[in-house]
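Troubleshooting: if your tokenizer reports a length mismatch, compare your output against this known-good record of 325 residues.
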Amino acid sequence: MTHRNAFLSPRGRLALAQCVVDDGWTLRRAAERFNCAAATAKKWADRYRAGGVEAMDDLSSRPHHCPNQLPVRRERRIIKLRFTKRWGAPRIAAHLKIACSTVEAVLRRYHMPLLRHLDQNTGLPVRRPKPQRYEHPEPGDLVHVDIKKLGRIPDGGGHRALGRAAGKRNNAKGGRGYAYLHHAVDDHTRLAYSEILGDERKETASAFWGRANTFFNRHGIIVKRVLTDNGSCYRSKLFAKALGEQIKHKRTRPYRPQTNGKVERFNRTLAAEWAYADTYTSDQARAATYDDWLHHYNHHRAHTGIKGLTPIERLRVHNLPGNYN
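Known-good structure output:
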């Protein structure tokens, strides 16, 4: 910011304009005295005549109109997606098919807080320290494996479809326990393989890993390490046999789910964008949409953690000649 007493600051401009307007100096003489061009002297003299002392301050550089600015309706749609779905700028940009920088500019103009500064339950701004992010350099270096328990929906719908009181009565009569979603997520590409199964026993978990490993191999990923929690099914000899001698098994620290953060983030995305994103009238109706959602997650959903790419796109980057064998 220019000092108030600097040369041709508002105070210097006022002295220049007063010499011309009040004292009758010629523009050339005033320009020589204040070491500026005659056009500059004329500009400040004209402004002084029109607006007085207040006209000596700099005018705003903001344009009177911005023909390339998004329509207000489009901006409101961006804010709505941020407020209701809590999406980041890359995700909103991919959804609306506009530039990410444009979305970021709109969010700044409306003073929207950063997602990492929001409380996940209430959506209110709560500033938190930025977590340190780790990532393995190659696909297959580490695969996160976990199980997500999801309450089954009774026939006719639960409280989301019928209301809380009716939903509780319906669940008490036709409660169906839990569905067990087994996940395997590659650390580097975020490529996910998942199945809805009936339990979390060692036989089920071991058979699931066999199919997951086949899925990754089919995409050119050779799994080297697997990270799980300390569940009994993962501590069994049967699961160790399913991994084989070529795959190293790592376990998280007790009571530290952050260690398995990639698959925990997948669970959160799954809950927000599939499990509770719509009102389902039965568990079969929800399960029928899972494969389509998982395909969307792997092939079409932009991930902020991998610079706006989809898992398949990031995998293709590494499968280019010379990048990954």
